[in-house]
Amino acid sequence: MTATTLLDGKSISVSDFRCDAGPGDKPFAEAHRCHSISYVRKGSFGLRCRGKSHELVAGSVLIGHPGDEYTCTHEHVCGDECLSFFLSPELVETIGDRGAIWQVGCAPPLSELVVLGELAQSAADGSSDIGLDEIGQLLASRFVEVVTGKPRKAGFGAARDRRRAVETALWIDAHSHLSIGLEDAAEQAGLSAFHFLRLFSDTLGVTPHQYLVRSRLRHAARRLADDDSAITDIAYDVGFGDLSNFVRTFHRAAGASPSRFRQASRGDRKIFQERFALN
Fold this sequence. Notes:
Strand content: 15-25%
Shape: globular
């Protein structure tokens, strides 16, 4: 088993687990240390928990409840891969913390969950501009809705709440060159991360992290068009911590690399004409 930490936040942490155990490996008991939801993206494994046995395949979710013992088995196939979200007690209380919800052990591949699980994996791979903490909260919230059969209501809409979202968006834009997380923005708004994510998304139509990334892209595009700074300098100046991530994200948004975009801004319009012609 290999584990890679992808995010370590106060409300939620995310890890990538890859197991190569097979039928010949002896299973052993483990215990969940906190509430968690793990999306099985590949492979299969058996689960023994609370006196019941389950089989999980790609698209299933493993649900963790603090202190519950469980055993994973690999009697049929070798190996599995999971993207796991570990939730703080405060976040679980906000989402819904009734014990029965989190003691089901697992859930089968459900359409309401697999689409979010794949979006989470896309975020983990860097192919989506939604934040891992954001999609983790959405996945957990959707799980609770499916189990209870009671969709949550946002409960927002007052002018005061919408103003909070707008003011925080302006703050994010002004500080987009800095490292800003969901919890930082939520603190600025004076709300819990969970409620802030819902308020911001409902009001502005994008998540806080999506808005942050797009603010950085907007500032980068202006810099590429207006000055001759090195592309690497621009990437770091606007807040991207990795050049390859900046190039990939910018190309996905603009349909052209940063250098080609700069050429187009200086008069080479064929770049965008070729792009649209291909589409």
